Structures are given as structure tokens and as C-alpha cells.
Amino acid sequence: xxxxxxxxxxxxxxxxxxxxxxxxxxxxxxxxxxxxxxxxxxxxxxxxxxxxxxxxxxxxxxxxxxxxxxxxxxxxxxxxxxxxxxxxxxxxxxxxxxxxxxxxxxxxxxxxxxxxxxxxxxxxxxxxxxxxxxxxxxxxxxxxxxxxxxxxxxxxxxxxxxxxxxxxxxxxxxxxxxxxxxxxxxxxxxxxxxxxxxxxxxxxxxxxxxxxxxxxxxxxxxxxxxxxxxxxxxxxxxxxxxxxxxxxxxxxxxxxxxxxxxxxxxxxxxxxxxxxxxxxxxxxx
Length: 285
Prior knowledge:
Elements: H1 5-10, E1 14-20, H2 22-31, H3 41-47, H4 69-72, E2 85-94, E3 102-115, E4 119-130, E5 133-145, E6 169-174, H5 179-183, H6 196-201, H7 211-226, E7 234-241, E8 250-257, E9 261-268, E10 274-284
Antiparallel strand pairs: 1-3, 2-5, 2-7, 3-4, 4-5, 6-8, 7-10, 8-9, 9-10
């Protein structure tokens, strides 16, 4: 069996130094579709270095994602085919706002391995700290198709109850044809998002958009629509990737604000509102 759950969880964490500059932040924001209209003061907060603030989902790519999901797939106890790998879910918890430039230490480990029968789920945890203390904690849930069935712990399975009533706000965000090619420059080089032949090997008709790009686009929509454009109000952001998105499609983002939280559902407009993100919650001040 390519995955040895006990060995993976017991493996020593990998620690690396990461650094980022305002250019990395600006590139990330542009990869999410920021900067339209280019002279809009609200968009300049994402694109102009003299006004720059950092969308909290930047935590998923800071330092080019090091130690990162791809490197974690080569940790002891794990030997998998990248074509069988899908990003199942993501959570980010902010301990304080992310600076536009910084240096930090990232420590990554396999926090859990779950047996879902037809797939294994790896929970990859990355904790990032700088000279002033903890900055953020990332958890990535990675599905490895065809690697389950060894009789291990199935892990948590409860899904959130769907929000009641119609959404308070609904916005649509177009995805450009070349957006995946731009977004991958922030550090996710999986050819699934660029190479048509690789995408076919993975079972897709053409390259798909990074789940984390949809994740970032959705958070930006929530911040801009319900949080007054103030990224520092975000405390945590969790989602489950429920379906793929293809470049050229349009995201429909539905929002249900509550007490210190926003529930969100995201679908693909052109495919009869096929689900894209589910069980999505933004916690905020």
C-alpha cells in the first residue's frame, strides 16, 4: 500500500524558512482577478504597493506554498500518483493580519490520514510563525483516489446543515481563460491546471482551475461585499471543494451573514449551478 498512515503521522515535521514581498502579494491578488476596474480605489488596495493590504487566503501560497502540499506528498509513508490527487478542503486560521512583506518559519506535517474506502484523505497542517509569534495555521485536506480500503479511521464525516432561506447577497465573478496560468505562478505547479494531456490522464476534459484560486476569489468577494473591504476582520476561513471549475466559467457566490460568521455557497453558472464550494464559513470580527 503506497500510504502507511501510522508512518506518515509519526514522521518528523518539515520546517523551512519562507519569505514574501509585495510583488508576491500583488501577483496572487491578480491571479484571483483583482484589479478590475484597474483604477477603482477598492481594487487598488489589492494591486498598488503604496496601499496594499493582504487577503488572508494568501496564506495558502506565501513562500510559494513551502513546505507545501506537493512536497508533503513525498513525506515518509506517502508515495502517490499526482494524477490521483485532488484537493478536498482547506482551512486557514489567522492569528494576526499578514504583512505585505515578511519572513517566517513554516512547519508542515501530516496531522491525520483517513480511510474513506475508495480514497485516502491526508490532512496536511502548516503552522507559520515569524519573529513576533504565530501568524497563521493552514489545514489542507487532500483526497488520493484509489488509496483507501485498508480499514483505517474514516475521520469526521459530518457536513454542515445548509443555510436556511434565500441568501442575503449574491455576486458573480467571471474566470478568465488564462486565469489558471496566471494563478499557478504563485507556486502551485500541478500540471492538472495547465497541461491538457495531463488533465485527460486525470479524467478531465481540459485543465481545471485551482481549487485554491476559487477559494481566494470567494474570500475576496465576501470581504468586498460584506466586510467593508477590511481584510483584517477575517479570523478564519474554511471550505470543502465540492466540484471543479473550468477557466472561462462564472462563479455564483451566495452569502448568508450571521453573528460573526458568513456562510457561503459557490456554484458554476454555466453548468446549471453545479456546486463548487460547500460547507464554507468565513469567521470575522
